[in-house]
Amino acid sequence: MSISRKYAQKGQRALEILVRLKRLYPDATCTLNYETTVQLLVATILSAQCTDERVNQVTPALFARFPDAPALANADPEELETLVRSTGFYRNKAKNIRAACQMIVDRFHGQVPKLMEDLLQLPGVARKTANVVLAHGYGINMGVTVDTHVKRLSQRLGLTDKSDPLRIEQELMHLVPQPDWENWSIRLIYHGRAVCTARNPACDRCELADLCPAATVDMPKASRSYRRPQIPGPVQA
Asked: From the candidates 147, 162, 164, 218, which is the catalytic residue?
């Protein structure tokens, strides 16, 4: 089989996976709590190596004390560290939050920028964080958010054999239509939490098993009935 034909088949499989994910998780959205784009940026920075659930426990007190970019930029470092301590790597996160908010104040008039290249200049912001902020803060799909769930499931589903998040993102951007880039990410994350977990994936009740080269069961498509999985609380990304 030619490379182009294999790629076309992979694209068709990705589209079928997306259709099923939309049916399984019709209301899937970002699970971080925030009121402004600055707060979304900060919450996403805090979510690195931490659960969304834990971040959501921290941010109410954080944003009550420092609600916007100027306040966060001028926050006392020790107080900020104390507020975000339970999210892990708190010194580095607090440093990046202060520096990013200072740049937002100095260069972007207190508003989180809408351009990928500008976001990537902010301390502590890589493409994963930038994609989340653009998609959920501004409704702009500039890329595919690749966290550990998206990486694991995309590999298991045979859509990529890459390990570098940037290369995985580039492959997925060619397989999934741009309007659905964030749909793809957020729904794979839900499925990774609910069914296709890292250690014990529930292949016997997975609605994608017949499309998945890594599945440990053989479930004919004709025998499937779509049912929405029970979604557990956020787990570590």
From this structure: 147
